[in-house]
Amino acid sequence: MAFALAQSISRVSFRVAARGADALLVELDRMLLRIGLVGEFDLPDQHSVAAQVRLYIYLGFGAEAAALLNAMSADEKDTPLWLAMAQIVDGEEVSENAFVGMAQCDTSAALWSLLATSVDEVEMANAAATAAAFSALPRHLRLALGPQVTDRLLALEQPDAVQGIVDAMERGTMTVQSATLLVASELDLHTGAVDTAVANAESAFDQGGVAAPDALVALVRAKVASGSTVERDLVVALAAMIDEYAGSAIAEDLAAAYLLALIGSGQYAAAMSSSDGPVPPVFWDYLAADGTDDELLQFAFVAPPIEISTASAGKIAQRLLSLGFNDAAREWRVLAGSGLPETIMENDDGGPHAIAGAPLPSTDATNENPDTARHPAVPDDGARTRRWQQDWEAIAQIESDPWNDLAVQITAPEDAADEPPLAEATRLVAGSKATREMLERLLRATAEQ
């Protein structure tokens, strides 16, 4: 039914570019003043009203076209179409979609049906008809509508059709416009050419103008996708734009890009506090690769991430193991995937070197297995924490702890100094020697682990 309706719509209804091209400057002035729209008996001239509406759409004046249609009745069949087209050229969401079911038509209706459908709801498209209709648009409308067409075609996994849209946007321009660069960057990002995506987004951002917010969002997305560092000045620029464009259509995209920029610039605490929900998986990618030990420990003990790559979980497990947090490393290793090889590789010096997916050294100090006896147990996280906190009284109660002897001496009560000065000096020398011997034993035990 919709296909038949699209076929019945006059092609003149979609001749937006032709109407603008046919109008001379004198006629444009006359039409913009709305001269000649009313005929005999003060009735609207249907032909003149239709021509005026198409001219407004050609110029990108969607609100003016809608106002004229509401003020003066036009062709009853075309009015819903023109109202939808008016909202599309103004970048607004179509309130009443007159193009429902026309996405697979082989006429210009395919393009407008695609644009009238939101990105989340688009299901099908006639790529050939869409590209042909888009190519027939005037250059300024191609630049304005190109990103919207691109978003929908990429959602349908049609990158080849997007390349045709990019070519049409570049046609007739002496220099590549920012809108074209943004579409090209999005296409590059979709196809995995992240370096080219960054370059195109940077070029678009350098041009400035009204496309600067979109260009900055695209630039941050491309940089984070490539794993590059996001410069702090881009973070500052995004923060300023969030205030400037509050309540606008791009506000949500700016906020999402700001979170990515905080992550990409290494501001992990700010990113965690700025996120309304779980941080995106890329947070853990950057933290695992570039975060300091303090930053890693700050976030590695929070609730486990909902999504994380196997490689990043393995890196975090490896780093936690090297810091002595054996139990926590074991939990992160589970996130890395239980199907990985359970082996321990040997370093050149014969020491154990855990890899992502490898079993961690046992915390059982009584392990008598001859295959693992040469790899002494690594202290658990509780013991490690007690040492960092210098809780010597607790350590003095644990005989198996290598620091037990030193902790006992530190916590032992001092005898009253009622001895002669020479005897006191002798006692201090003996105590110093005992302390040195305990430290030597401790260092040997630590080296063996």
Describe the structure.
- The protein is mainly alpha-helical and 449 residues long.
- Among the domains are: 1-156, no CATH class; 392-448, no CATH class.
- It has 24 helices and two strands.
- It has helices spanning 2-8, 16-22, 25-32, 46-59, 62-71, 79-89, 109-116, 127-135, 139-155, 159-170, 178-191, 194-207, 212-226, 232-244, 251-264, 268-274, 281-290, 293-299, 310-322, 326-335, 381-388, 392-396, 404-411, 421-448, and strands at 345-346, 352-353.
- The chain has a two-stranded antiparallel ribbon with strand order 1-2.
- Strand 1 (345-346) and strand 2 form a beta hairpin.
- Helix 9 runs antiparallel to helix 10 (159-170), helix 12 packs antiparallel against helix 13 and helix 15 packs antiparallel against helix 16 (268-274).
Strand content: under 5%
Overall shape = elongated
Total helix count? 24
Strand runs, count = 2
- What Rg do the Cα atoms give? 35 Å
Termini separation = 77 Å
Question: Going across the major beta sheet, what is the strand order?
Answer: 1-2
Share in helix: 55-70%
Please state the structural category.
Answer: mainly alpha
What does the largest sheet look like? 2 strands, antiparallel
Mean pLDDT: 74
Provide key terms for this protein.
449 residues; mainly alpha; 1% strand; elongated; disordered N terminus
